[in-house]
Write a structure and sequence with these properties.
By secondary structure, the protein is of the alpha+beta class. It is 43% helix and 21% strand. The chain has helices at 3-23, 26-35, 93-107, and strands spanning 52-53, 55-56, 59-60, 63-66, 74-81, 88-92. The strands form two sheets. Strands 1, 4, 5 and 6 form a four-stranded antiparallel beta sheet that branches. A two-stranded antiparallel ribbon has the order 2-3. α1 (3-23) runs parallel beside α3 (93-107). The model has no long low-confidence stretch (mean pLDDT 88).
Amino acid sequence: MDDEQTKEGVLEALNPEVLAVEALTYDELNSYFLSKEAEKPCGACGYSGEWDIKTDGDQPSLLFVPDYRNPSVGTLFFTLTCPNCMNTRLFDALDVMRILRSAERDNG
């Protein structure tokens, strides 16, 4: 199964939520990371400054990791990368989107 078929399988299964994940902006994601104090010191090198959010143009990049046993499904992740040693933290993109949208509904 090629990458496009795998991505299509995810899009078919979760289309509305995947589209909502794809619509998240850099600013929304950065605000989320700040609110969760996600930029704690790096466990690999101790760096304690600002981490990098990888982008695709002006949108946060999405990493798709297929499931080993069923590669037609997988998980989407946002990443934070330590600019000193390139250690990378993964954040489940669907869960991040759900938390952000829930907060928006609660704040009206």
